[in-house]
Amino acid sequence: MKEPILALLYDFDNTLASSDMQNFSFIPKVLHMEPGEFWNLTNEIFKKWDMDKVLCYMYCMVNICKEKGIKLTRSLLNDCGKDIKFFEGVTTWFDRIDEYGAKNNVKIEHYIISCGNLEIIEGSSIFHHFKRVFGCEFIYDDEGNAIWPKTAINYTGKTQYIYRIKKGIIDGNDDIKINQKIDEKKVPIDNMIYFGDGLTDVPAMITVKDGGGTSIAVYPKGKREKVTKYYEDGRVNYICKADFSKNSELEKIVKLLIEQTHVKASLEERKKNL
After folding, report:
1. Which of 172, 206, 208, 158 is nearest to 187 (CA)?
2. CATH fold of 5-20+86-272, please?
3. Is residue 138 classed exposed, middle or buried when 0-12, 13-18 and 19+ CB atoms within 10 A define those classes?
4. Closest Cα to residue 14, out of 85, 118, 79?
5. DSSP-derived secondary structure for the chain
6. Cβ contacts of residue 215 below 8 Å, gap of 6+?
7. pLDDT band at 124 (very low <50, low <70, confident <90, very high)
């Protein structure tokens, strides 16, 4: 039997990381601002120009650095990833899940689909665990300074990456194959798990759930009410505390889904031999 693939798709901010990725280092240490000050400024500009919120925060990153004479380079953003603090268990989660997948003859693939900065995620301690990270990215001039958005992923834009993973077209700039009809899917949506935390994840969570996969909304300890409505409205399959540690409720659910993937593939194989 061909080993089935189970794709685990993660939002990043407030899903794996315990806050917005820019809050840990970029805003306080590079811009020397309070996170609230930066985000209030982006909100003012968003309202003034009726901008896309993702393009707005990327504009503010470039513009504030320019005003303060700060060189906004890829390496600077990579360094900011080193200070990210993750929810409990995240740093050991991927190896544990990979091992359990192998035990059940299921190949696990991890992906990030984030509205945050790809360059900051690149510098984080967990970056190497992902088959592909889809995130917002800058273009850099000849001196290495960020000058313009290369890729901006907003909330509904996240859904296209689900279909890229489904078809095995993980080159984010390939806009031809992604729109072509492909009969054999690399990872059917019913072999996907999406992890998110809030409104920005709703389109992706619904896409995966309605496609037969599993969507899980996570919440910080003591803030269950943050995601209860998503479950009540049928937008997600499960809600769990953002605890990725061994024997957590989240791990138990994912392990059962791995077992289910193996059983489902085994039954499909038996059908072929009837």
Report:
1. 208
2. Rossmann fold (3.40.50)
3. buried
4. 85
5. -PPPEEEEEE--BTTTBSS-GGGTTIIIIIS---HHHHHHHHHHHHHHHT--HHHHHHHHHHHHHHHHT---BHHHHHHHGGG--B-TTHHHHHHHHHHHHHHTT-EEEEEEEEEEEHHHHHTSTTGGG-SEEEEEEEEE-TTSBEEEEEE---TTTHHHHHHHHHHT---TT--SGGGS--SS-SS-GGGEEEEE-SGGGHHHHHHHHHTT-EEEEEE-TT-THHHHHHHHTTS-SEEEES--STT-HHHHHHHHHHHHHHHHHHHHHHHHT-
6. 193, 194, 196, 204, 205, 206, 208, 209, 235, 236, 237, 238
7. very high
pLDDT digits (tens, 9 = 90+) for 60-107: 999 999 999 999 999 999 999 999 999 999 999 999 999 999 999 999
- Over residues 233-243, the mean pLDDT reads 96
Q: For the chain, give every residue range classified as CATH 3.40.50.1000.
A: 5-20+86-272
Query: What is the pLDDT at residue 84?
Result: 98
pTM value is 0.94
The model's confidence at residue 273, banded by pLDDT at 50, 70 and 90, is confident
- H/E element holding 108? strand 107-117
What does the pLDDT average to over 32-50? 96
- For 179-226, how does the pLDDT look when each residue is reduced to its tens digit (9 = 90+)? 555 656 789 999 999 999 988 899 999 999 999 999 999 999 999 999
Q: Could you say which DSSP state residue 173 is in? A: T
Say how far apart CA 205 and CA 227 lie, in whole Å: 12
Paired with 192 in beta bridges are: 7
Helix, strand, coil percent values for the chain (each to nearest 5) = 50, 20, 35
